[in-house]
Design goal:
Blueprint (H helix, E strand, L loop, with lengths): L13 H20 L25
Pathway: Carbohydrate degradation; glycolysis; pyruvate from D-glyceraldehyde 3-phosphate: step 4/5
EC number: 4.2.1.11
InterPro entries: Enolase-like_C_sf, Enolase_C
């Protein structure tokens, strides 16, 4: 799929934890098949807080 990041929300609910566990198992399956390609690690994107615009330093 070419995804770099997946946003799931907090891991507090059973449904979210199930999604996370499924992603981990997919990663393991792809690694075993040799289909998983690791890219250069980058920091996660920054999201502004709700109601605040991102600041632009000049």
């Amino acid at each position: 799929l070419g995804l770099e990041y997946v946003k799931l929300g907090g891991l507090s609910g059973a449904e979210r934890m199930a999604k996370y566990n499924r992603l981990v198992s997919i990663e393991e399956e792809l690694a075993q098949q040799g289909d998983l390609v690791y890219k250069e690690r980058r920091p996660p994107p920054l999201f502004p807080e709700k109601g605040r615009e991102p600041s632009t330093a000049e």
